[in-house]
Amino acid sequence: MTATNWLLFAATEAALSLCPGPAVMLVVGCGIAHGWRRSLCATLGILCANALYFGLSASGIGTLVAASGHLFDVIRWIGAGYLVYLGLMAIFGRPSPLTISSQAGKPGGGMAIFRSALLLQLANPKALLMFVAILPQFIDPAAPIGPQMLILAALSIVPELCILLGYGMLADRASAWATQPRYARMTDRVAGSLVLLAGILVAGANR
Predict the structure, then answer these.
(1) pLDDT more than 90, % of the chain
(2) To bridge 198 with a disulfide, which of 9, 22, 82, 207 should be the other Cys (CB 3.0-4.6 Å)?
(3) How many CB atoms lie within 10 A of CB 104?
(4) Is 119 exposed, middle or buried (0-12, 13-18, 19+ CB in 10 A)?
(5) Where are the domains of the chain?
């Protein structure tokens, strides 16, 4: 595998990460509600899930999962249901990792946000399909697989980390006024709507 292929893979990953999908919406929602530090917790959860999917794809298990229509649908509906639940809880001001109006302005727990992001990405079948479809195109079967997988994993994680951090920091600019008590309910509704939309996107995902 040449350096040109590595750069092409990194560029592909960056382009996909820039697209406003469920992961981006959760990071932005957390950034608006709690600032960039909490959005970082969401970013780390998403990247951990991606690393797991990367490993499954590399081992060949991901292909089997993607080929199973029933399993794909189960994962898709579980993920969509979870996102819709989070979104509605925030919209109606009920306690959740996103909601601030019912927490007396206190930031949501970082671990709770991390778990939510991890579950979001694990329940997003598009993440697995992306690795199954794209990864094999950048592997040279004539060269040792292990080193290639490590390089590709780094080239997958680093661009997405930078991009999601950027989204979180941009959203953080709005959090200074968004977390004020008089704006708290509006913030809940905006963050909840973003995650609710993410759930709808996951529900509409097709193989």
Answers:
(1) 7
(2) 22
(3) 8
(4) middle
(5) 24-137+159-203
